[in-house]
């Protein structure tokens, strides 16, 4: 507060300090003195329309009734809030508002969280004043053209907040006061549909609406999480908690170096994820309910590729040596992420990898056509550049033995063994491969001859499609995928399914492989039955198939992508659970003190971004175990105020999604499609009269 502009005045004989230019209402609320109001909102310019903030101001010329939101404070003024005339005018104003407001409060979605309802209680106006009315205007009603915002305009009190928010906060101006057939109402300019207007679906109108007239459509935001998280669904659903709205905004501004810095705060392999992220953020993107989700993964890829300066690396400093030594078994995304953070904290870190190259499934599990290996190698080089020692061809047979040499041990091996389906005849056949082995051979350039081969892949996830498409690209004549799920329920990404179909791969849905066909000791086909229903119960897969639906699929090679397992055994010296997974406590510590485990070794097969998150989490636990503070959070880019004015964008609601971004300009165009959900967090909430901030001003309290 600028003390040179302060002025002292009184409200109900209590001295209050205000600032020149401040309204009486603002000064009162700041001082913890409640004055009723409805059209006023702390984020918007006052308009004084509702008259509910009427107070009496005494001056040498006498007493005058004024709107507190429109009256500036001045030195020595005396304000009275509860005079008979002021209270009467407020009650009359409120009753006029209620004259056309429906009486069904209990059926409203904002019941018990409605400012109008709270004012009824504060001013002592009976609910009987409410009327059972139906307004004729429903031009903002819900429908296919408006799937994000629920409008119940019969509840509108024409406070104008939504109109002002759209214009003042966002610079869009899609809403306006309109008149039709003698009825005044709030609607879209020119009575257009929202999707045909300048609306950017930012939700500011919903945020400032004091009643249930404008609401978020049910199902748009996740439930069971804090409101601050729910309002930004992409960030909420990201396993790593990446500040997605910030880097999207920076990408739109062409600030790729800054955007990349934001990515690196949470991710050790952002460029890899730009190619193969599971895109949970896109699945929850609010724009997906309007049209198509934002191409968040593609923007991430372009941002990292456009980051020529890599200024974030200058802030990724290594702390002084602690003298502690840690070893990581497994150079996949979990292990390398943990190694990065432990090295930053000053610990000496060695990574042991039994394969000839580090990277885990990034190196050996993902086809080359999906993830260029140069991308993996470049990001691993950054980790090694921090001082992490990575030793390959270094198999480990006992975790306990490592503990004698190192202060802490992390087991971060992957799920390197295939989990076969319940078909005993597959075991030991030379023309049968587990998907994980097939992918490893493909990545190492050791695939058997595929030319002219007829191949069947069992499974319907991304790994199954990786194998099928790899085989097809390697020269296979026919490739079939047998999948339990029906087409609309398949686990694989839609883009993988579409690409496979374009490449001539046959997908047989609702099919359960029941029998292996043999010829001369080799598999020559698989017989399947049509699935009517299936579920996974306590005893595993439970199937109901169609009678007499057995159908053979000739095959010269079978690849099963029906799950993966950790390759550890009891000889490793740790307590193991189902599927060979390491049993850990809440600190990720195993049955051997000082030996930790994380990633797929604990959870089974997860996505790369989940593996990175697990590596971050366990590194904090190990850092604390080694005597440090366990704080691994990084800040590579100084946050700045976010402009709330987003302006108009022509044809915003129909801007097409770009699936493959080729350069910075295309990334900027795609980023422009963002609805800016996080801007709602800037809008302060209105405090009801019962809020603790106004305790002293409530009746009967000192």
Topology:
Blueprint (H helix, E strand, L loop, with lengths): L5 E6 L2 E6 L4 H7 L23 E6 L2 E6 L10 E3 L3 H15 L16 H9 L25 E3 L9 H9 L5 E6 L2 E6 L15 H5 L5 E3 L10 H4 L2 H5 L6 H9 L3 H9 L5 H7 L3 H5 L2 H4 L5 H11 L18 E5 L3 H12 L3 E5 L8 H4 L8 H13 L3 E3 L7 H5 L4 E4 L5 E2 L13 E3 H10 L9 E5 L3 H12 L4 E5 L11 H9 L3 E3 L2 E9 L2 E16 L2 E6 L5 E4 L2 E4 L3 E2 L29 E3 L2 H4 L4 H18 L38 H8 L31
Helix pairs in contact: 8-9, 8-13, 8-23, 9-13, 10-13, 13-23, 14-22, 18-19, 19-20
Q: Can you characterise this structure?
A:
The protein is of the alpha/beta class and 702 residues long. It has 5 domains: 3-98, Ubiquitin-like (UB roll), CATH 3.10.20.740; 105-216, Alpha-Beta Plaits (2-Layer Sandwich); 227-313 and 638-682, Fumarate Reductase Iron-sulfur Protein, Chain B, domain 2 (Orthogonal Bundle); 317-416 and 566-625, FAD/NAD(P)-binding domain (3-Layer(bba) Sandwich), CATH 3.50.50; 417-565, FAD/NAD(P)-binding domain (3-Layer(bba) Sandwich), CATH 3.50.50. It contains 23 helices and 25 strands. The strands form 7 sheets. Strands 2-1-5-3-4 form a 5-stranded mixed β-sheet, sandwiched between helices. It has a 5-stranded parallel β-sheet with strand order 12-11-10-13-25. A 5-stranded parallel β-sheet has the order 15-23-16-17-18. The chain is elongated and about 110 Å long. The two termini are 26 Å apart.
């Amino acid at each position: 507060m600028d003390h040179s502009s302060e002025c002292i005045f009184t409200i109900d004989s209590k001295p209050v300090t205000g600032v020149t230019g401040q309204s009486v209402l603002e000064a009162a609320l700041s001082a913890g003195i409640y004055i009723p109001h409805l059209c006023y909102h702390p984020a918007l310019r006052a308009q004084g329309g509702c008259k509910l903030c009427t107070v009496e101001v005494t001056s040498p010329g006498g007493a005058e009734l004024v709107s507190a939101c429109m009256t500036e404070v001045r030195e020595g003024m005396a304000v009275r809030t509860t005079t008979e005339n002021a209270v009467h005018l407020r009650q009359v104003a409120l009753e006029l508002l209620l004259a056309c407001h429906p009486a069904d409060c209990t059926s409203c979605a904002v019941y018990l969280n409605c400012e109008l309802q709270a004012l009824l209680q504060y001013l002592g106006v009976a609910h009987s004043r409410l009327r059972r009315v139906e307004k004729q205007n429903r031009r903002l009603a819900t429908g296919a053209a408006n799937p994000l915002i629920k409008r119940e305009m019969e509840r509108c009190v024409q406070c104008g907040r939504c109109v002002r928010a759209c214009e003042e906060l966002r610079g869009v101006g899609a809403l306006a006061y309109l008149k039709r057939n003698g009825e005044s109402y709030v609607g879209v300019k020119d009575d257009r549909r929202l999707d045909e207007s300048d609306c950017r679906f930012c939700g500011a109108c919903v945020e400032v609406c004091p009643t249930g007239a404008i609401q978020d459509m049910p199902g748009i935001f996740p439930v069971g999480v804090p409101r601050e998280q729910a309002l930004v669904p992409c960030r909420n659903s990201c396993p790593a908690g990446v500040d997605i709205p910030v880097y999207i905004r920076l990408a739109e501004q062409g600030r790729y170096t800054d955007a990349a810095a934001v990515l690196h705060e949470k991710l050790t392999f952002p460029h890899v994820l730009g190619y193969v992220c599971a895109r949970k953020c896109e699945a929850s993107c609010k724009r997906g309910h309007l049209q198509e989700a934002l191409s968040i993964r593609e923007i991430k890829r372009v941002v990292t590729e456009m980051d020529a300066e890599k200024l974030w690396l200058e802030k990724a400093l290594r702390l002084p040596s602690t003298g502690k030594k840690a070893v990581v078994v497994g150079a996949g995304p979990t292990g390398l992420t943990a190694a990065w953070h432990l090295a930053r904290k000053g610990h000496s870190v060695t990574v042991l990898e039994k394969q000839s190259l580090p990277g885990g499934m990034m190196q050996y599990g993902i086809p080359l056509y999906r993830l260029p290996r140069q991308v993996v190698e470049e990001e691993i080089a950054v980790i090694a550049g921090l001082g992490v020692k990575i030793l390959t061809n270094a198999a480990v047979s006992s975790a306990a033995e490592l503990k004698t040499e190192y202060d802490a041990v992390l087991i971060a091996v992957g799920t390197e063994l295939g989990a076969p389906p319940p078909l005993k005849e597959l075991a030991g056949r030379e023309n049968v491969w587990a998907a994980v082995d097939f992918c490893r051979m493909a990545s190492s350039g050791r695939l058997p001859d595929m030319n002219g081969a007829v191949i069947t892949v069992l499974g319907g996830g991304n790994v199954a499609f990786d194998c099928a498409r790899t085989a097809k690209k390697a020269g296979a004549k026919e490739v079939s995928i047998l999948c339990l799920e029906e087409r609309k329920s398949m686990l694989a990404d839609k883009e993988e399914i579409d690409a496979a179909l374009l490449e001539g791969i046959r997908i047989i849905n609702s099919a359960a492989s029941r029998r292996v066909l043999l010829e001369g000791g080799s598999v020559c086909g698989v017989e399947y039955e049509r699935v009517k229903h299936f579920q996974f119960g306590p005893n595993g897969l439970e199937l109901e198939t169609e009678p007499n639906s057995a159908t053979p699929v000739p095959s010269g090679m079978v690849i099963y992508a029906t799950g993966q397992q950790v390759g550890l055994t009891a000889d490793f010296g740790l307590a193991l659970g189902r599927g060979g997974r390491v049993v850990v406590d809440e600190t990720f510590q195993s049955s051997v003190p000082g030996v930790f485990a994380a990633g797929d070794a604990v959870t089974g097969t997860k996505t790369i971004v989940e593996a990175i998150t697990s590596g971050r989490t366990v590194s904090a636990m190990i850092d604390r175990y080694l005597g440090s503070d366990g704080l691994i959070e990084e800040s590579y880019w100084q946050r700045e105020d976010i402009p709330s004015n987003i302006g108009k964008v022509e044809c915003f609601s129909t801007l097409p999604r770009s699936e493959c971004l080729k350069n910075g300009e295309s990334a900027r165009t795609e980023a422009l499609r963002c609805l800016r959900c996080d801007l709602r967090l800037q809008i302060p909430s209105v405090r009801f009269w019962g809020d603790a901030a106004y305790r002293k001003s409530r009746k009967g309290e000192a």
